[in-house]
Amino acid sequence: MAFKGDVKKVVLAYSGGLDTSIILKWLQQTYGCEVVTFTADLGQGEELEPARRKAEMLGIKEIFIDDLREEFVSDFVFPMFRANALYEGLYLLGTSIARPLIAKRQIEIARDTGADAVCHGATGKGNDQVRFGLTYYALEPGIKVIAPWREWDLTSRTKLIEFAEQHQIPIAKDKRGEAPFSVDANLLHSSSEGKILEDPWEEADEIVYQRTIAPEAAPDKATYITIDFEKGDPVAIDGVAMSPATLLTKLNELGKANGIGRLDLVENRFVGMKSRGIYETPGGTILWAAHRGIESITLDRGAAHLKDELMPKYAELIYYGFWYSPEREMLQALIDKSQENVTGTVRLKLYKGNTTVVGRKSPKSLYSMKTVTFEDDQGAYDQRDAEGFIKLNALRLRLRATGQGGPKT
């Protein structure tokens, strides 16, 4: 925790919404410091110029609004998808992977502007405070970190509204009541949690979903697409080359139209509690299936199985906020090495919430029709070799049966 008088200038992760506008004013009032605002465009789908105007109205002189969509997808999302990362077997880590980029850019701005502190609006109950903090300290060990939700006494929506009114901070009319749930969004996903979603027994209302139509409302006719990969990364859809952010945007459109990417999850937060969230990752869900599809014919069995063994650890590191840790970098090097021959094309069928791989081909394919065929393989495989293979693998089982009586049946 920083102390009053210690901070001269702070870089605030600023959305322009009510909470971060209150934080902006609170920083000026509590720390008496200069505030620099930083707003990241990660493809959340919101107009960002109002954030600039609001910061100007609150007296901010240094305002940064950066379009980070391409960097987000190419340097964070794609490396993560090379690993097929899923937290607790289901979650595609849409919020988790965005935090290190936002925090990295804050540190860069702090260096450029001579700021000695950074500030985020994450609560003291969630994962994001950890993700922000770990990234800040990994990149700038001596930086001061201000986390208002762990410091101030504005502990209710009523107190926040009162503070805003006292300091002439504009409040959208719909913010005067209790929001039914909170939303975080970027180009990879949207997540909704809290309030009406807190009871894990109650099915989420359709109003919660913003990135996808209901599978029941999706077209009765399937959509077929192809995705081309080069060294583990997608580069084209239906043969049309696209930039990383453009490609993910297109997959989002396809996923939304076919009701793909919904997840209702109760997860284990890093801080120890369980939480229920509704996630929508339409393009990411398609991409995950497609990447597994191209790996199925280009990865050696040992490499593929090793990746699957390491994936839960890799996903956990991202979820916990350790993107800039040596162990994540070590795993990334292994994962990236595995992708050297993951090149080719996958054909997918999108239909009413489902993504099915229905075709795959690659100039680097390890799949041999000559070897696997049930027809005459013309000497490609001698089936008699299997007898010795089986006997060697059975040797320890036979010795156990002879010396110890074998397994209990």
Helix content: 25-40%
Could you name the CATH class of the largest domain?
A: Alpha Beta
Structural class: alpha/beta
Q: What is the name of the CATH topology of the largest domain?
A: Rossmann fold
Order of helices and strands: EHEHEHHEHEHEEEEEHEEHHHEEHH
CATH architecture of the largest domain: 3-Layer(aba) Sandwich
**Gross morphology:** elongated
What does the main sheet amount to? 5 strands, parallel
Strand content: 15-25%
Mean pLDDT: 93
The termini sit apart by 61 Å
Kindly report the name of the CATH homologous superfamily of the largest domain: HUPs
Low-confidence stretches: none
Task: Please tell me how large the radius of gyration is.
Answer: 25 Å
- Please report the number of helical segments: 12
Report on this structure.
The chain is an alpha/beta fold. It has three domains: 9-178, Rossmann fold (3-Layer(aba) Sandwich), CATH 3.40.50; 183-299 and 341-361, Argininosuccinate synthetase, chain A, domain 2, CATH 3.90.1260; 375-402, no CATH class. The protein has twelve helices and 14 strands. It has helices at 18-31, 49-57, 69-82, 99-113, 128-139, 157-166, 244-257, 282-298, 301-320, 326-338, 369-372, 385-404; strands at residues 9-13, 34-41, 63-67, 117-119, 144-146, 182-185, 190-193, 223-230, 233-237, 240-241, 262-268, 274-280, 344-351, 354-361. Helix 9 (301-320) runs antiparallel to helix 10. The termini are far apart.
